[in-house]
Structure formats: C-alpha cells, structure tokens
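Readers of this paper often ask what the protein records in our data store actually look like. Nothing more is needed to write down the fold, since each code stands for a local backbone conformation. Below, we set out a record of this kind in full and without editing:
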Amino acid sequence: MTDWLKIAKESYESSTTYFDTHVRPQVDANIKAFQSKHPAGSKYLSDAFKYRSKGFRPKTRSIIRKNEAAAAAALFSNMDVVNIDPVDQDNPMADAASMVGKELLQYRLTKTLPWFKIAMGSLQDAQTVGVVCSYQGWKYEAETIEQEIPGMMDEMGKPVTVSIPKVIEDRPCIELRPIENIRIAPQSDWLDPINSSPYLIDILPMFIIDVKKMMTTIDQKTGYPKWKKLDDVELKTGIQSEDDVTTMTREPKPHNRLEEDTALSDYSIVWVHRNIVRRDDGDYVFYTLKTEKMLSDAKPLSEVYPHLKGKQRPYVMGICVIESHRPLPAGVAELAMPLNQLANEVQNHRQDNVKLVLDKRWFVARGKQVDIESLVRNVPGGVTLMNDINMDAKEINWPDVTSSAFMEQNLINADLDELVGNFSGGSVQTNRQLNETVGGMKLLNQSASLMTEYLLRTWIETWCEPVLRQLLLLEHAYETDQVVLAIAGKKARVWQKFGIDPQNDALLGQELDLTINVGMGATNPEERMRKFMGAVGAVSQMAQNAPPGANVKEITKEIFGFAGFRDGARFFPEQVDPQMAKAMQMIQQLQGQVQGKQMELQAKQQSDMAQIESNEKIKADEHRIDEGRIKGDLAIRAAEIEVEKARLDLERMKLIAEAQGSTQGANQEQMLRLAQAEQKVIQLSDKVAMERERFGLEKEKHDMEKEKHDMEKADKMMNRQ
C-alpha cells in the first residue's frame, strides 16, 4: 500500500530546502526591488549607514509598470483578441464549435473573470520574481432545497415535496499562485517545469470554516474527493508555526497577515497542501493538512480533472525572460538589480557630497568647551558657544559634485535601459546626445519597443495561451449554464449558419486551436495601424497583379507577418487564386448583363401581361353583357307568352260557357273555336319550350367561350413565368 503522506512529506521537505537555500533569497530581493526598497543584508540597512543617504531609485518599478502598460495596450485595445480555429477546417460542427468557444471565452473573460487584473498581475509576477504560476479549475457549489408539489398529499395528509438542486456557483476560475507557495523538483525540465516535475505541491491558506465545509460536501462537477473529517486538535496542527519570510516581504510593513496565534476558531488560517504526485501508472492528486494529516484519498488526476489530456496538469508556469536550462529563470527585477544598485550607489554618494557641501563638517578639539549640538543642528541664525573661535573648532570645506558623477549616472541609466528594453523620457532629458535628432529618437524607440514586444511575446506564449487553452477545455467539459450557452450560441449564430443547437454536447467536444492575436508591433497603436493599413494595401495590390500560379494565401501570411501580425490569414478567411478571381469578376460582369436583360424581359412581360389582362377584362365584360341581354330577352319573351296564354285561357273559358247555353249548331261552332284555342295554347307552350332550349344553347355556348378564354389566360401566365 502506498504511503501517500510519507511521499508528500518527503517531497515537501526536499523542495522547501532547495527553495529556501537557492530561490527564496533572490525572490525576496526581487520583491524588495519592485517595492523600491533595499534587500535584506544591504549595507544601507546597517548602523554604519544610519545617518547616510540611502535612497532607492525606482527604476525597476517604472520599467515593470511601463511593460504592464504596453501589455494592456496590446491585449485590451481590441475586445476580439483571442482567435479560435477548428483543427478540421472542413467540418461544419468544428467550425460551429470554434465560434461558440470564442463567444464562451469572451463572455467568461469579460463577465465572470477579472481577466484584466489577472493578466496584469501575472505579467507583474513574471517580471518581478521571474515566473508566474496559476491554477485553472472549475468552481461549482450547489445546495438541495425541498419544494412542495401543489395539490399532492401523502398517506398522512402532508404535502409531497421533491428535492431540487439550487446552483450557487458554477464558473471557471484562474488563480494566481505565489511562487513561494509552489514546490516542484529542482531537476525539472526548464521547458516545462510543471508537467516534468515528479511532484507538484500547492500550499493553500484556508479558513477553518471552509475546511470543515469541504469535509461534509463533495464537488459534483469536478469530482474532488470528499475530505476526511478531522477534529479541532488535528486541525490545530495545520496552523503555521513559523513566519514566511517572502509573505512578510510582500507586505508594506513586515507583518505576516496569514500568521495566526495558537487559538483555534472558524476564521483561523490553516495550511492545506494540494499534492500532485507521479507514480508508475500516472499522476495522482490528494490533499493534506500541511504534511501531518491526510485530508483526502489519492485519486488519479484523469478522474479529478477529466478535461485535461495526456500528462497535462491544471497548472501553468509562465516566464517573460527565457533563460535556458533554468526552471526558475530571472525576471526583469533580477536582470536590472546590479545596475540599479550601481545607480543607487552613485546617487547616494552624490547626495552625501551635496549634504556635506551645504552642511559643513567640523573638527572640534578634544576637551574644549564647544556647543557640539549647536554645530550639528546648524540652525540658520543660531549661536554656537566656544572659548577660542580659531583653535577650538575648524570648518572643513568639501568640493562640490563634479560633472563626472552625473555622467556616470547617465551611463548607468543607458546601460539599464538597453538591458531591459526601456525607452524613458527621463533618460532622454538627462542625456542631450539622445535628443539631437528625430531620427535617432525613432531608432531608439523602435529598438526599445522590439525588446518590450519580445518580452510580451514570451509571456503570451508561455502563460497566456496555455491558460486560455485550459480555460477552453474547462468550458467544453463543464459548461452547463443554459443562459451562457444561449448567449454564446446567439452571438455566434450557429443555428442560423449551421442549423446546430449550441447546447449540443458534441458541439463543445470538437478539437480547437487557440491563439492570441498579439504580434510584434502591438505596443504602439499608431505604428500598428500604419503597418496594418500598409499590409492591407500590399495584399490588395498583390491580389490584382499576382503572377499565375501564385499562392495568395501564403503570400498574405508573409506580408502580415512582416507587418508584425502573427495571424494575418484571419483577415482573409477565404483566399482564391488570382486567375480564379479574374474569372469570378468576368462572371459577375456577365451576371450583371444577364440580370439587365432579365429586367428588360420582365418589364416587357409585365407590359404584355397588362395588355392581356385589359383585353381579357374587355372580353369578360362583353360576355357578361351578352349574358344579361340573353336573360333579358328570354324573360321578356316568356312574359309575352304567359300573357298570350292567359288571354287564350280566358277565351277558352268564355267559349266553354257559351257552348253550355247554346243550340246544337252553335255548340259545334263553339267547340271548333275551343279546339282552335287549345291548339294555339299548345303551340304557345311549344314555342316557350323552344325559346328556353335556344336560351340554354346560347348560355352553353357562352360558357364554353368563357372556359376557352380562361384556358388561354392560364397558358399565357405559364408562358410568362
């Protein structure tokens, strides 16, 4: 069985011994230089220099702050700094994932993470102590609440409740870790100290109340193991018993704010170690209370951090100055320290000389009655008592500071500026030779800017991009906030472009490539704009006059690379061959001509259609008039027939009445007349029937003509379309 506590203790003790002996003194001195204070052990802190000049010129801090300002101008002048591309350019799912991933990072870096402070703090650490180390993880906290179901009761008549998780915190985090709280093996590879070290120990100061909370809960999101329960006596062993010198150095006054007394309360600080140890089958992670008690069981790193791939750990260590074969290289403060000490030496000697010139030194004869305190005070208008003015005391005159002291100061400033790539107005003002020509000033500024950009490029390559890549992996693995995903999907327009739901699990699982769009020349916005416009003009001219077979995409990359832009291809996502571009231009011209012809045909068709519709309307009106006329004539003729029929009926009835009261001969005559009347009625009925039949034929003919007209109209419409 592996003794994890023993491994943690041995690793911590060996690495701490090395750190305290070889690293901590330089780290403390670097922090003091950043604070414009003399390091521990300096002669200026001794009693011999109690009344001497011991100023510290803030050259180190001014250089570091200038580089921070340059980084802020390079990173935050454009909100769209990060560029994410799919590894598989032909996969629409990967293309959509790159857009969503970019929007997710943009949202997290601007809304939930103080990215500006984190980035500037990391650059400050890298310049001050030489390295910056950060931890990337996911903070998730939820509690279970009971909620009643309306209208549902149990057997006892009580309301039925269900447990609903309530998310309190669900976001990624980037924590800058002080270098004095990180332990790695001294033999680590200088190219990748974090992942090459056989162990990594992160010393975490935690409140007792937070430790107890971790003993009762488990992180469901990242799978952290539940911490073991310890009593107060055991927790007391986690209180630090000695002062951390580096932590005290960081404070404005020598005080360890993380040091607690022996009393134990919920708000006492105990020290928890996050241990990552390499074994034969991979890395394991576990927590200990200092090196005394196990807080959790050891678990494989791949189970606790499933989003990481290979042997990668959730830590990134970055630098700003490359120093080969040294895992913890020097920073700007350490590089500038020797020259800064020389500058302080010259300045303090010069100030002492000026003080001696203004406040003379006196030789006083031993045993004489001289008011020495009055001589030392040297108050204007004061009186100093002595017996013999000529013999008891003697004023010593000191020569004034020569110009060589100022020349030495200027030379030291020039060497320091050249070393760290600083172009300051103070150096120009104190050295007239630098201010003689505008061209010389520009050359010096370009050289200094190149050094600053090299420093920023080193920091971005070693810290910024690896950190953001881990943050992107965290988003892919743990992002479940529906609101955040909806916002990212809406801004990326993945549904409109690809028809893909931004909450699709497969979308966030694509392999992506992340880069930061900060290249050489990014620290000067005006110069960067000039170079950008020049590169765009060159690319535009090249695209029009490119020789046959030229690779326009590669030429574009080279042009923007010379202008200082690391990824110029992102400005032209789709490059085409020049011959193809000319062909496309001709096609567009032909399409324009075709479109003009189509517009003419459409206008003519519309005119013809209007004429056809007008003719059709006239014919329809004629058909409607004919139909009305036929119906009117038929109605009139039918009325006439009805009147004639009614008259014949009356005549028939009259004849019948006369026949009943007349003689035989007269009766025969009346019967004849009656038969004739009935014959006329029959004829009239036949005539009415014939008229109706003629009207029906005319109506049928009219309907056929109308149907033919409608068919002709439909054919014309089809031909027009």
Notes: The radius of gyration is 50 Å. The first strand starts at residue 82 and ends at 86. The CA atoms of residues 104 and 427 lie 45 Å apart.
